[in-house]
Structures are given as structure tokens and as C-alpha cells.
Specification:
The chain is mainly alpha-helical and 177 residues long. The chain has helices at 14-18, 25-40, 59-81, 93-98, 107-125, 130-134, 146-176; strands at 136-139, 142-145. The protein has a single domain (12-41, 57-176), classed as Up-down Bundle (Four Helix Bundle (Hemerythrin (Met), subunit A)). The protein is globular.
């Protein structure tokens, strides 16, 4: 699969696409659940609800958000790959997290939910041919290709893994010492 052009997604998503320099986006997508498990394995249960600042998501909420986004991006990719050009609605990630109840769930269950969603999305994406990856539809008022959605999915997780490392895991370790 070739990298998506800047005309295949809204400018907002450039940061996510840029986080995936690899040409094998499917390999990146496949590796991310294990990477997430590895990063979070050392988080103590009492640290799972850690917030690095008032009004910010907890570690559980951040991982729950990854699952929410995986559902949304995956559905968009599935729909557009099948030739439905939309339009599909956007989603307010803050409202979704606020109404999620993620902080009441163990972190391991949220990680495994993300892994299951990613597995399902990979099963779909592995059946998409070149023409399917070039198909597009409208989501959140913007045209986007299936190819761009694959890169956005991988880049979105990398974006939040970087935030997890910089703002949660480092600060969580500092606050517990």
C-alpha cells in the first residue's frame, strides 16, 4: 500500500499520518496491541486512574479512548472500503470518555478490548484490495480514503503512546516515589 497523499484526509490528521513513516502500515497496526500491553504492564492498579493534571483523562480513560477511536476509524474504513461514500458523523471524544465509565474498569480489560477491536479491523483491512484502499467517503464533514484511515489509526495510537510516556508514565512514576 502506498502512503496517502495530503489530499486524502483533513489537515487535522496530518500529525497522525506523519507518525507512521513505515511503508508497511499493516505491520504497524498488527504490532500496536502488544506494544500497548508492554507499555502498560508496569502500571500499578492504584496508578491506573492517575491524571497528570486536573481535567485530563486518567490512564484508563486514555486507553478507553483508544478503543472508542478504533471503533470509529474502523467503521469508517469498513464502510468506505465497501463503497459507501458516507457521510458519517464525527464524534466528540471528550463526551464519549465522560460517559464511558472507563475508570471503573481494570486497565487490562480496556487494553484487551482495544486488542480485540484492532484484530477485527485488521481482518477487514487485510481483505481490502488496492481499489478499496483508494475508495473514500465523508466523515465528520471531510473526505477521507480507506488508505488514509489505516495510517490515521496507527498514527493516532502512536500519538497517545507518546502522551502516555511523556505525561502519564513518567509523572506517575515520579508521584509514586
Amino acid at each position: 500500500m502506498t502512503r496517502p497523499g495530503a489530499d486524502e484526509y483533513a489537515p487535522f490528521y496530518q500529525g497522525y499520518v506523519a507518525r507512521v513513516p513505515e511503508s508497511d502500515v499493516m505491520g504497524v497496526l498488527a504490532a500496536q496491541p502488544a506494544e500497548l500491553r508492554s507499555r502498560l504492564a508496569a502500571v500499578a492498579r492504584e496508578q491506573e486512574t492517575f491524571r497528570y493534571a486536573d481535567g485530563k483523562w486518567s490512564i484508563r480513560e486514555l486507553v478507553g479512548h483508544l478503543g472508542d477511536s478504533e471503533r470509529v476509524f474502523g467503521y469508517r474504513a469498513f464502510t468506505f472500503a465497501r463503497g459507501d461514500e458516507g457521510p458519517l458523523p464525527g464524534f466528540d471524544e471528550n463526551v464519549y470518555v465522560e460517559r464511558s465509565g472507563f475508570d471503573a474498569l481494570p486497565l487490562t480489560s480496556l487494553v484487551e478490548e482495544f486488542a480485540a477491536l484492532r484484530s477485527a479491523n485488521l481482518a477487514t483491512l487485510r481483505r481490502v484490495d488496492a481499489a478499496g484502499f483508494a475508495r473514500s467517503g465523508v466523515a465528520n464533514g471531510n473526505r477521507v480514503t480507506v488508505r488514509a484511515l489505516a495510517y490515521m489509526m496507527a498514527g493516532h495510537v502512536r500519538h497517545h503512546l507518546a502522551i502516555l510516556d511523556e505525561r502519564y508514565l513518567r509523572r506517575s512514576a515520579e508521584s509514586s516515589s
